[in-house]
């Protein structure tokens, strides 16, 4: 028996098929882009997710078929995870898309966020939803559409998350899961596990525009219809498991089911998360139900908005017709290995699209500080890698000061886990031990596991521990840690001393 996982990411889709023991037997992927029509804006048409998902699934199925030829091999189910879709996709009653989805990266809802902070009591919002207000959250993006595109708002039947839109294409059914609902913020009651009439009314939003059906991430959302079967190569009638937001599903793929365990997912953005019973919700972090045992388990994370995107952006500046982003990244990484910790006095603030936790500042801007004529691009590149680790430390320290207890080992998944040098930097900067998973499959592995739980192929959630293998422990270097302790202090000062200037330039060039 086999299980399939599909993750719809910000810049690409990935699919895997595993056996019931978690061994990956085939993979498929695709890539696509993000629209940025203005500074700090980010949106995507859902067609790119559908097309990318179909390509990834087809490639995965073709590899699976080639591997086993004519032998009968049964795929039991597919589960789907996806990027945080911010506002969600506004659709009409025929499920026609009315405008691009305003995704998590977008920061346009500044006015709406300010209104919430000035008119809605923080403790009221935090007590009900487990979250506060920021332009990151979907509810402020919905408010922006209401205020700035009233015709779109009037015609909107539902706001649909990326992965739920994909599931609709697969099955014809409308629904969402607890993690996706909770990640919208402001409109979801984290304790009652349902939409909050109280906050929806205060915010002036509409409950009717939210999904009527909320289910667990392991529930069956529907079955593959004939149309999607023809497109994808999946068998018609295959159960589709609801899945969830990619961050907690990646947390699961890192083997996290217990309290104190924590996982850093570092891809385009960074989500560093941990599990608890609900006692550690905080206005400085993001909280919503976990993809396993959502009635009792809360997933809380701190995140960097453009973590992996920052070094990728820098590498892209050196591309030519004869090079690729990957090769330029590898060249820069190789050169940066010769640069000492601290990058010879360079400090980067990785706030290239504002920043999420713990500073929650949409006006924050990227900074490369300390440049001299002796610095080269290898210094800048290393300082960028260090900046993401400094951002992670900022979130970790915020959580620990809030009373969160953490294991001394942090698991890491995502693009950053491909770089041993970068993992060493994470360990040296934070003081935590780090380990990466064998194969670094990320969210699709967690999806496949959810597919197993949802169909009864897997009965115990702790079985994920047997699915995940690690490639050793990377210990922090004490001498490097002392260097980074000083740099971290300057990193914090650099933002505090420049945030007002950042706001001025952001307001001028918004």
Element layout with pairings:
Elements lengths: L1 E7 L3 E8 L4 E8 L11 E2 L1 H23 L6 E8 L6 E3 L9 E2 L7 H10 L2 H8 L8 H11 L1 H6 L2 E3 L1 H10 L4 E2 H6 L4 E2 L4 E2 L1 H7 L10 E2 L4 E4 L2 H7 L6 E7 H8 L8 E5 L3 E7 L9 E4 L8 E7 L4 H8 L8 H12 L10 E3 L17 E3 L7 H25 L7 E5 L6 H11 L2 E4 L6 H13 L8 H4 L10 H31 L2
Parallel strand pairs: 1-5, 5-14, 9-12, 15-21, 21-22
Antiparallel strand pairs: 1-2, 2-3, 4-7, 6-8, 10-11, 13-14, 15-16, 16-18, 17-18, 19-20
Describe the structure concisely for a colleague.
This protein is α/β, with parallel strands linked by helices and 510 residues long.
Question: What does this protein structure show overall?
Answer:
Helix 14 (about 420-430) links the parallel strand 21 (about 410-415) and strand 22. The strands form seven sheets. Strands 3-2-1-5-14-13 form a six-stranded mixed beta sheet, with helices on both faces. A six-stranded mixed beta sheet has the order 17-18-16-15-21-22, with helices on both faces. The chain is globular. The termini are far apart. Helix 1 crosses helix 6, helix 10 (about 245-255) packs across helix 15 and helix 14 (about 420-430) crosses helix 17 (about 480-510). It has 17 helices and 22 strands. By secondary structure, the protein is α/β, with parallel strands linked by helices.
The outline comes out as globular
Helix content: 25-40%
**Oligomeric state of the chains present here:** single chain
- Spatially, the strands of the biggest sheet line up as 3-2-1-5-14-13
List the uncertain runs.
Answer: none
Question: How far from one another are the termini?
Answer: 53 Å
Question: Strand tally, please?
Answer: 22
Percent of residues in beta strands = 15-25%
The helix tally amounts to 17
The average pLDDT is: 95
Sheet with most strands: 6 strands, mixed
Secondary structure category: alpha/beta
CA radius of gyration is 22 Å
